[in-house]
Specification:
The chain is an all-alpha fold. The chain has nine helices and no strands. The protein has helices at about 5-25, 35-40, 55-80, 85-95, 95-100, 105-110, 120-145, 150-175, 180-195. The longest helix is centred in the middle third of the chain and has 26 residues, at about 55-80. The radius of gyration is 18 Å and the shape is globular.
């Protein structure tokens, strides 16, 4: 039986959770240490008891956000009816609910355009989680295409699927026209169902 987390560990987790929401909501550059600590109910001075640098916090926050997204997507797939994992994944990812839940949703869509400007540790953490999501998509594409499908074709379809999901969500969130946002999501769902799932 593992020991209960210490107070310091619980505080550390609270800071990382708060930061993971903040970066998705405000971006990396729009997220300051003082704001994160305040939102977590802590003083700015306590930050360095938990992290050696802002970059270290951002790397953990990026990993945490990616882990949350992967967990949600995995749960959606597991709860889908038999043979409907891929279709359910598409519906969930391109739902209006996910579109509105920026600070709780997929960090690839919330932060992807900023990633190339981040420190290597942050990029590495994010890349690891992106690979995890691609692997999940690949499993669902394989199930849809069948065991006889060539590995390269399955991989390519999974990469195109993830890229299309993320790009569609970015565009749906970018516009200030709710009707256009809904239309982007609807058209993308239909296209992906027809061509991938």
């Amino acid at each position: 039986m593992s020991a209960a987390p210490s107070r310091k560990e619980l505080t550390h987790e609270r800071i990382v959770q708060t930061a993971s929401q903040a970066i998705r909501r405000s971006g990396y550059d729009g997220t300051g240490v003082a704001d994160i600590m305040k939102a977590a109910g802590l003083t700015h001075g306590g930050f360095y008891a938990h992290f050696p640098s802002r970059t270290a916090l951002l790397a953990e926050a990026a990993d945490h956000a990616g882990a949350q997204a992967l967990s949600r997507l995995s749960e959606v797939v597991e709860q889908a009816p038999e043979g409907q994992g891929l279709a359910t994944l598409i519906e969930h990812y391109l739902s209006e609910r996910h579109c509105k839940a920026v600070d709780q949703g997929c960090p690839m869509a919330a932060l992807g355009s900023e990633m190339h400007r981040q420190e290597p540790a942050v990029r590495q953490a994010s890349t690891g989680r992106i690979k995890d999501v691609i692997a999940l998509a690949e499993q669902q594409v394989r199930a849809s295409m069948g065991p006889e499908a060539p590995n390269a074709a399955v991989r390519d379809a999974a990469l195109a699927l993830v890229s299309s999901l993320v790009g569609s969500l970015v565009l749906a969130r970018a516009v200030d026209d709710p009707a256009l946002s809904k239309a982007v999501l609807k058209a993308s769902r239909a296209f992906l169902h027809a061509h991938v799932g």
